[in-house]
Amino acid sequence: MMDHFHIPYALPTVLLASALLLKGPTFVRAWRDPDVRATTLLLTWATAVLVVITPVNIDRLNRLTGIPNIASPWAYSFLTAFCATGLTMIMRWREAPSPRRHRRMITVYWIYAGIVAGLWFTFLMAHVPEPRIYDLDTYYANTPWMREHTLLYLLAHLVSCLVAAAMLWKWFPAVTNPWLKTGVVFQQVGYAMGLVFDALKLTAVSARWSGNDLDYLSTHAAPPFALLEASLVAVGFIAPQAGPFLQQRHRDQRAYRRLHALWRTIRVVQPAGPRARLTPWTPLDLRLLARRQRIHDALRLLAPHYDDALYRRAHATAAAAHGESQARGIAGAVAIQAATDAYQTRATHPADGPAPQIGTDITDHIDAIASALHRPRALNAVRRGLSSTESVDTHA
Fold it and tell me: The pTM is what?
């Protein structure tokens, strides 16, 4: 039966724990950044709450410590810390740094630290000898000190959800950043789920005070809303940070793959200096930077073998069938491939006047050239057009 109850907790717990692990390297690199620290703490508290409230872990804690219901102050302390961190993060987002903001955040931390102390005090004062895995709040709803323990965490959580929702509601119209706006929406929905959780729990506990039994509201109806709140609020705080990062990573990944064909073409050019040692674990932005530098270094070394006249003819041929950007890319690809062939045979292109140089016709259109190299049919069509033109010129 316990297996049945802990299954719903697995997915959000794994998701939050995974987000926390992924956040780890960022925390190590930028632990001085208060936003990074706060996000890491928020994920830590949210993950800890879900780990502790899982029924199988509640039972495990009871057995390991020999203290019945010890999971209660632990779980509710983590939940309280989660609420405090969420409120202060919203303050960071809404307000510019100032002594007033700093004082308000410190006040929030002290208030919720006092609540955590109160949770442990009331639990230690309560007499709760019977371990309760699923219905602790309602089973001990009329027990001195445990009653206050339950009310303390529920009211603290209720107030934090109301305050956070109010701050977000007032702030939402002023938010222009799409990722931040997305995060605010997730948080608003998450805190709404928290309010539903509190309402169900308080209704069930109040029913016990009046001699009625609505325990199912606490044991079955409320927990899914707690899971949704922790997950949605955490996602809301992660989205504004992770969204731009993932968006930039996607752009870098596309650029890295797009440059592959050009990088493969110029690999025959021996670099002027030692190559950087890169591994699959090297950050993508560094690998992209190294690939771009490798291409530009190779183009500089290919300059003595570059045929600008070939580029002009290829551009004229490609422009007849393609747009200007594509024509420049195709012409550049044809010219660079010819230059690498000449480099391998050590052939140089004689030029009257200054030495051959690879100018902006190539360097300003690297991405278009890289894209053209992924379309061999278009390149071959231009080469055939150049060959037929040369044949006509020869016979003439």
Answer: 0.74
